[in-house]
Specification:
35% of the residues lie in helices and 15% in strands. It has 168 residues and is α/β, with parallel strands linked by helices. Helix 1 packs parallel to helix 4.
């Protein structure tokens, strides 16, 4: 017995143009901060509005006292492909950070302070998470001037409404 099946009809779907992205940066390591900055930069280059919301240790990327000292996380990082014990040895994080920065320099990827300035100058908005700011006892003066303001999560969701939210 043979069964003749009709070819399924697929109606063309109109692609929705992304007009806004909101990116949450929650990790304070090089490999936790750069993805958000790269995505925000890419969005702005495509004419897409971009918001960056820094929370928990991601705040290090926008703190005056830390944004120039961000390192690669070697302990417990499965992406490093090394035992945790090796990642904990003195100097390993510094060496991994040096290696990654050299690679990024070859690709013309700017250091975090320069990248923050670049995305802010391109029109991306940078925000600090109020709950994290309060938890760490920080104030507006602790942040680089590119930070637009400190927002609650609810305020961030209001800003993000109608766009895509990306967690890095």
């Amino acid at each position: 017995m043979s069964l003749l099946m009709e070819e399924p009809r697929v109606e063309p779907v109109e692609r929705k143009t992304i007009e806004k992205v909101s990116i949450v940066v929650s990790k304070g390591s090089l490999e936790g901060i750069y993805p958000g900055l790269i995505m925000a930069n890419g969005a702005r280059m495509e004419g897409i509005d971009a918001n960056l919301f820094f929370t928990f240790f991601g705040l290090d990327a926008i703190r005056k006292d830390r944004w120039e000292k961000i390192k690669v996380a070697t302990v417990g990082n499965p992406g490093m492909h090394m035992p945790t014990l090796v990642g904990a040895l003195p100097g390993i994080s510094g060496f991994a950070t040096w290696m990654m920065k050299k690679q990024m320099e070859k690709l013309d990827i700017p250091p975090i302070p320069e990248f923050i300035e670049l995305v802010a100058d391109s029109g991306a908005e940078l925000y600090a998470c109020k709950a994290s700011v309060d938890m760490f006892g920080l104030t507006e003066e602790d942040f680089v001037p590119q930070v637009a303001r400190i927002l609650s999560v609810g305020e961030f969701y209001e800003l993000a409404a109608g766009g895509e939210i990306i967690f890095t």
